[in-house]
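Why do we care about 3D structure at all? Because function follows from shape, and shape follows, mostly, from sequence. That is the central idea of this module. The next example makes it concrete: a single protein chain, its amino acid sequence, and then its structure expressed as tokens.
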Amino acid sequence: MILHLHLVRHGQTYFNRYNRLQGWSNSPLTQSGYEDAHKAGRTLKDVAFAAAFCSDTTRAEITAHTILEENTAQKEQPRLVRDMHFREQFYGYFEGQDMAAAWWAAGAPHGAGSYNAIVERFGLAATKDFLKEADPFHDAESDEEYWDRIEKGFSIIANHPQLHEDAHVLVISHGNTLLSIMHRFAPDGYDLSERPLNGSVTQLDFDTSQDIDDAVSIVSYNQ
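And the structure:
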């Protein structure tokens, strides 16, 4: 069964505005964040969604409801499924901290003092593993822990009883999660130094009959 997933990064929050790691913590949408959600809703208003999913954070839920309210493709919208498996990466001790300071703490012991430097020298997985190592409580998700949770999110979508061949699915996602998906599944040719914008749409085709590494095809990024 092929599903067409429309992944939308939630609207801007105050932590986004202040350049702080957000993860599992939650700050309110800014006025621009509400506008981001409405813009995404207008972009997707003609798509008939068979199902809709988001993380159990208010920033994701408000974005999802706004998009569904803008939708004109069908009279009755699907019930929104909220689940922790769609959350952003968990940053543990570094939740809410300034991003530059947090990534310096993670990368400096390895000779890479920023997020981009870690990615360039060690790969994206190292950003998660180095942050967990730097976390004095080691609560931050490792790369393995992160993907175990995210893959369960894909399984939740695959097993949704209302879905059928060629169904369109709305998923409200998060910045680092979208980057992680792109780094894992995107072919060459995408500029992944460009972070997904708040309210942007990334489209995937998801083949539920395949193992996860063969199941995801990127259609578009950060539109």
